[in-house]
Design a protein that fits this description.
With 234 residues, the protein is of the alpha/beta class. The protein contains 9 helices and 8 strands. The chain binds N-acetylmannosamine-6-phosphate (LRY). The site of N-acetylmannosamine-6-phosphate (LRY) has 17 residues, from strand 8 and helix 8. Converts N-acetylmannosamine-6-phosphate (ManNAc-6-P) to N-acetylglucosamine-6-phosphate (GlcNAc-6-P).
Amino acid sequence: MTNLFPNKGLIVSCQSFPGEPLHGTPFMVALAQSAKIGGAVGIRAKGAADITAIKKEVGLPVIGLNKVDIEGYEIYITPTLEIALAVHAAGADIVAIDATTRQRPDGLSLSDTIRELKSRGIPVMADVSILEEGLAAEEFGADYISTTLSGYTSYSRQQEAPDLELVASLAGRVNLPIVAEGRINTPDQAVEALRLGASLVVVGKAITRPHLITASFSEQMDSYRRNELEGHRH
Ligand SMILES: CC(=O)N[C@H](C=O)[C@@H](O)[C@H](O)[C@H](O)COP(=O)(O)O
């Protein structure tokens, strides 16, 4: 497989959800263009409309996915082969899929899903939550292993910080490029991920979701003011 990212670098995840002020393809394109100006080497994007527009207007490699909730199933990141093929057809250079071993709605196993995608020449990013899932995904033929789902499966490490321990253990055991993803909120954390062996670092909300960035400031300031008032009372 040709590695689309020969140099270590930053991928910016440009995703939004209905109800958010920046929901919509033109906003995601503008965020992706801003990411490119800032030095990102790739974009992670959700849904056919965003993927096609970003691919056309930004000119960076796109890691595509779709998030689909299917009743009765826990997995939601590109949960079926059909959805993965649609993501690729929309223009994604790499398709990101849930690579846990949880039940898939189309009844295919993870290894069958990866095999089907690879037989069509589609590069696959395996979104995992624990080391064992990364090892299995490598064996099944994935091209990149990402720590995306750590903290989002019941059996993975639950913490507010990024799972850099998983980055390090994957880097020690897997020969594929390791992608550090999930709750990376500062440049220092991104550099630490590289130091531990990540090839790529995906940053989402800390760059592309202004309402959450704002809340991180206002909540910390509110809590400071509450403590200050508390101090005056004593
Ligand atoms: C768990 C899940 O569904 N993760 C999604 C995967 O595409 C996105 O919602 C995240 O924004 C992305 O992984 C980047 O993470 P963060 O926004 O924490 O930098």
